Structure formats: structure tokens, C-alpha cells
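Translate sequence into C-alpha cells.
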Amino acid sequence: MHYNLGKAELDHIFLIVRDEAQARSMMDQAGLRVNYSRVHPGQGTRNICACLDDVFIELLWSDGSEVSQATRQVILNDRCNGLGSPVGISWRGKSPIDASDGGTVPYFAPFLPAGVSIPVASKSLDLALPFVFQTPGGTPPIERTDGLVGDRQSPELATLGKCKLLVRDPKHIRDFLAPFEKIEVQEGAPSMQFELLRPDGSIGRVFSWALSERVQPSGA
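Result follows.
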């Protein structure tokens, strides 16, 4: 894949989990305050989010509701049903993915206004890779003025230091996520390890979320 020069600005990190109870337990064990939750009509999902100043940390699950054809086309419903990678990464601002290598495909998410689409990396149609997309709007949590994110994790925590993704076979995922700042991919027991920083830049919290065993797509 060809990439634009420079690192992409990270916006969301999400992890697909079993249900709301598991999601809230994970946030609680990580010591994170849930800032908001949303329902995604037509996508068949709900989420909860913990907001830093710079990044949204999201846990997402299937709520069993109707899934639109647009969602099926980007096979997000398959991920929510336990197939392939449960990890999602989004950028804001300039795309890190060059159109010369397939670039992105439009996802007309049913919960967005008519005609509005989310660019999804075409490589994400491979379920073995994370779901990579551009966040609509792309406003950092600290700059939001709609009250959605509340006090974020302030005053204890401010920004993401890094997120380390450990997987059994890191090569292709490492190459795919190379454009993203603060994301590291290494070999190991499947998990996501987070390092969160205090306002003064020192490490304020470190925690890890295990990735549940997933059914891998044929040929992966």
C-alpha cells in the first residue's frame, strides 16, 4: 500500500466486545470514566466512549438490531459477529491512504445524514486487518463544544502516549497501521496495551485489554 508522507492524526481507537456489560466492566477495570454512549441505527451497534483530550477510546458491540446493506458491504457486521479482527482505528484530517492503491471505499453509514459517507480503507475489506476509516467531522475531544464529551478524563489524564497492539502475526497489520501516530504493532498474545499521559506529559496510567479469540476468515 502507498501512503502519504507524515503520520496520520489518530482520532478513534475501538475494540469490538461481546456486550454492554463486558464493555462497562472493561472501562471500570481500566479506571476510565465513560463520557458518553451512542446507538447506531442501521449499523446494529451501540458503544461507550472514554475521551482523552486528543483521542476517543471506544468499546463497540452488536445490539442485535437490523443491519443495513451499506453496513454489510463494508462487512462491519461480520466483525461484530466474531469474525476477523475486532480492532478499529480512525484518522481525522488528511487521509494517510493513497488512492493509487485502492484508497478508500465510501461507507454510507445509515445513522448519518443522507448522502454523507465515511471513507473506509479498502484494505479493511480484508477481515484479518483492522477496520480503518476517517471520522466524520474529526474534531478532537478537547475542541468539542457540544457537551458530548463532558470533562473527558480531566484532570487526572490528558492524552494518549501510545497504544500497542499485540497480535500473533504482526507483519501485515504493522504495515497497514504504519501511517498512524501513537500506534505500535508487535507480536504477542492478542491484546491492546494503552499508555495514558497526565497533563504534564508523565505516564499516568497503563492498562491492557485482551482481544477475545476470533474466528479467522478463510485464507487468513
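Note: The longest helix spans residues 20-30.
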